[in-house]
């Protein structure tokens, strides 16, 4: 296998996973909205927002990787347990996004208002008492909690071995999120901190653990899981590095978020840390000052973007992505997975590491 051809459209593994997960989610959300709206008609609105969020164009990467590892381990694509587990992974991701948007103060997600901003606007328009921002944040947190609970419902009948990995996944993403918050607050990005965040917020949560879940559902043991990790961890780092590039230089019509959003939020990314390392003394001081100003200044964002390009950091990160993908694909070639599983994962790897949104 080679990585010469980069897929521009979603690969088969993600499309198949999306078909499965979206069908289950539509049934679940429609049923639950109807059930709770009978209690009080006002309950329909948060369910509508949650439903819109969960089907609003996510790439279904986590369920797709679970599905590919399951198929590659000899699983039956019609197995209802794996389908429910895949849905749990997507609902858990929805929970994480809803809470992440509040923590980051993000106003847009997938081209639409974030849920907390939507409900802040609803509060203001309705002339309710109290502070619109607090109302919006509160509803956003509760919407995330609903997604979290429904994820638990989806996975509750899975084997205990699967639920143990799922619990570890949940812990790891929280650990990564704290490190991200801490790094943002300190506003002093380092490569070491950025890579730790990459491992826990992306390498494990997005790539490694979903594949482990799919393999364990087929009865695979630690030796096979280690082989999946050899493939998944470098791919997860490549995924996050590409996310870092998109967070600064991405096309907002594709990413659904404003250009330079990561700079505005002060994200401690490896891209920014690499730029700091590459700049000389005076430029480094200027860059650090401008980076702190990005929260309030579009001019500072534009200058920081130009300095990142000038430093060679973007080019270096893109080269690192290519090396990580090659490392990941070598591990995939040497893994126990059957040919179909390898093909599915190969396509997914190229797609997510070179995506434009």
Work out the helicity level.
Answer: over 70%
Distance between the termini: 25 Å
Text of the CATH class: Mainly Alpha
Task: List the uncertain runs.
Answer: 1-6
Mean pLDDT: 93
**How many domain regions?**
1
Order of strands, main sheet, comes to: 1-2
- Structural class from helices and strands? mainly alpha
Largest sheet data? 2 strands, antiparallel
Instruction: Based on the coordinates given, report the CATH architecture.
Output: Orthogonal Bundle
CATH topology: Farnesyl Diphosphate Synthase
Quote the beta fraction: under 5%
Total of DSSP H or I helical runs spanning 4+ residues: 16
Look at the structure and name the CATH superfamily.
Farnesyl Diphosphate Synthase
Rg, Å, rounded: 21 Å
Shape descriptor reads flat
Tell me the series of helices and strands, N- to C-terminal.
HHHHEEHHHHHHHHHHHH
Q: Count the beta strands.
A: 2
Written description of the protein model:
- With 357 residues, the protein is mainly α.
- The chain has one domain (12-353): Farnesyl Diphosphate Synthase (Orthogonal Bundle), CATH 1.10.600.
- Helix content is 76%, strand content 1%.
- The chain has 16 helices and two strands.
- The chain has helices at residues 12-37, 44-54, 61-72, 80-104, 115-125, 132-155, 160-186, 191-216, 222-249, 252-255, 261-265, 270-278, 281-293, 298-311, 313-333, 339-353, and strands spanning 108-109, 112-113.
- A two-stranded antiparallel sheet has the order 1-2.
- Strand 1 and strand 2 form a beta hairpin.
- Helix 4 (80-104) packs antiparallel against helix 6.
- The longest helix is centred in the middle third of the chain and has 28 residues, at 222-249.
- It is flat and about 60 Å long.
- The model is unreliable at 1-6 (pLDDT under 50).
């Amino acid at each position: 296998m080679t990585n010469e051809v980069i897929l521009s459209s979603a690969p088969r593994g993600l499309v198949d996973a999306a078909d499965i997960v979206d069908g289950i989610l539509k049934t679940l959300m429609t049923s639950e909205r109807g059930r709770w709206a009978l209690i009080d008609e006002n309950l329909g609105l948060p369910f509508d927002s949650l439903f819109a969020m969960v089907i609003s164009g996510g790439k279904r990467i986590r369920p797709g990787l679970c599905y590919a590892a399951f198929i590659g381990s000899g699983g039956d694509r019609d197995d209802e347990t794996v389908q429910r587990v895949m849905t749990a992974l997507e609902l858990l991701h929805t929970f994480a996004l809803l809470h992440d948007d509040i923590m980051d103060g993000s106003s847009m997600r997938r081209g639409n208002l974030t849920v907390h901003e939507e409900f802040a606007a609803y509060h203001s328009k309705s002339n309710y008492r109290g502070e619109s921002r607090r109302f919006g944040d509160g509803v956003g947190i509760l919407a995330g909690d609903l997604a979290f609970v429904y994820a638990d419902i989806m996975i509750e009948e899975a084997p205990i071995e699967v639920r143990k990995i799922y619990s570890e996944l949940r812990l790891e993403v929280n650990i990564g999120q704290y490190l991200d918050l801490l790094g943002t607050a300190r506003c002093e990005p380092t490569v070491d901190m950025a890579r730790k965040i990459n491992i826990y917020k992306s390498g494990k949560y997005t790539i490694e653990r979903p594949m482990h879940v799919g393999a364990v559902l087929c009865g695979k043991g630690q030796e096979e899981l280690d082989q999946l990790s050899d493939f998944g961890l470098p791919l997860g780092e490549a995924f996050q590095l590409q996310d870092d590039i998109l967070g600064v230089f991405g096309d907002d019509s594709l990413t659904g978020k404003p250009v330079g959003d990561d700079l505005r939020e002060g994200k401690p990314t490896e891209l920014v840390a690499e730029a700091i390392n590459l700049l000389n003394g005076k430029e480094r001081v200027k860059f650090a000052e401008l980076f702190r100003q990005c929260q309030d200044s579009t001019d500072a964002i534009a200058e920081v973007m130009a300095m990142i390009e000038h430093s060679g950091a973007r080019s270096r990160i893109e080269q690192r992505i290519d090396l990580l993908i090659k490392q990941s694909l070598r591990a995939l070639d040497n893994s126990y997975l059957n040919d179909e599983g390898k093909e599915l994962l190969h396509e997914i790897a190229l797609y997510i590491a070179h995506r434009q949104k």
